[in-house]
Amino acid sequence: MSPVNRGGRRKPAMVKKIMKKKVPSELKPIADVLQNLLTNRKSALSDQFMRWKVWQQWRQIVGESLAKHSEPIAYKGGRLYIWVKSSARMQEIRFFEKTILEKINRHLCQKWVRQIRFTVDRMGLPEDLQIQFPADNSERPG
After folding, report:
1. CB-based contact 104:60 (threshold 8 Å)
2. What is the DSSP string of 104-124?
3. Taking the model in full, what pTM does it have?
4. How many C-alpha atoms does 39 have within 13 Å on its Cβ side?
5. Gap between the terminal Cα atoms of the chain
6. Backbone torsions φ then ψ of 75, nearest 5 degrees
7. N or C: which terminal CB in the chain sees fewer CB atoms within 10 Å?
8. Among residues 38, 130, 35, which one has the least CA distance to residue 76?
9. Most distant CA atoms of the chain, gap in Å
10. Which DSSP helix (H) or strand (E) runs through 80?
11. Taking the CB of residue 62, how many other CB atoms lie within 10 A of it?
């Protein structure tokens, strides 16, 4: 006997088959949703998350000796601004610019940084930029 709908009429066989099929769940774990949201370059949160990740893991990314004398201070449009303690250190660190860029992008698993700018003046950033990374290392773990 075919199922009967509210009007007393029988449901067509096709409807019956469709009703029996299980629709696969489209729900995804929240961890996956957040990960996609934070690492998707099109997301407004993505740059903020990547900035935080670089600042938080600076020592692991560039190594202890470089981290002692430098830290990221701003990012905009693929350009990372890195503060260096002294002009002598800045001259030295410029030799590692390509290596630093590659390490950051490898660490983030994407080409997030396209160019690095070094500065000895934390306030000497272009007018449209502000310091975006905390200057106090005591907040950074490790």
Report:
1. no
2. HHHHHTS----EEEEES-TT-
3. 0.68
4. 12
5. 70
6. -150, 140
7. N
8. 130
9. 89
10. strand 79-84
11. 24
Query: If you search the block for the tokens 């998350």, which residue do you land on?
Result: 49
Residue 127 identity (one-letter amino acid): E
Q: Write the CB contacts of 63 (distance below 8 Å, at least 6 apart in sequence).
A: none
Q: Are 133 and 55 in contact (CB under 8 A)?
A: yes
pLDDT tens-digit readout, 25-82: 678 888 877 777 776 666 667 778 888 899 999 999 999 999 999 999 998 889 999 9
Do residues 78 and 112 lie in contact, with contact meaning Cβ atoms separated by under 8 Å? yes
pLDDT tens per residue, range 95-135:
999 999 999 999 998 899 999 999 998 877 777 776 666 65
Distances (CA, A) of 43 to 40, 50, 102, 111: 6, 11, 23, 15
Q: List phi, psi (to 5°) of 64.
A: -60, -45
For 9-34, the DSSP string reads PBPPHHHHHHHHSPPPP----HHHHH
The tens digit of pLDDT for each residue in 30-46 reads 887 777 777 666 666 77
Distance, CA of 101 to chain centre: 15
